[in-house]
Amino acid sequence: MSAYRSIACSDHERLELAALRRQWLEVTLTAGDQVGRQRMLPLDVATRDGAEWLLAETESGERLTVRLDWLQF
Q1: How far apart, in whole angstroms, are the C-alpha atoms of residue 56 and residue 23?
Q2: Given 3-state DSSP classes, what are the helix, strand and coil percentages for the chain, each rounded to the nearest 5?
Q3: FRET pair for 6, CA 20 to 30 Å: which of 24, 49, 54, 65?
């Protein structure tokens, strides 16, 4: 796994606000098991293992945990 690269503060705030408001987002995942365009509902943003992670739910109800630096808005 590559070294974590911090994301822009504005993107981090956008994710946290979307989780609080239960707002669906369209994002592109650039790494991991679900590469490509995804519509997801952010649930929580957490820090662990030296990286920041997003817990989100897909439209089909699947829960994903993805590194924030794998997301493009």
Answers
A1: 11
A2: 20, 45, 35
A3: 24
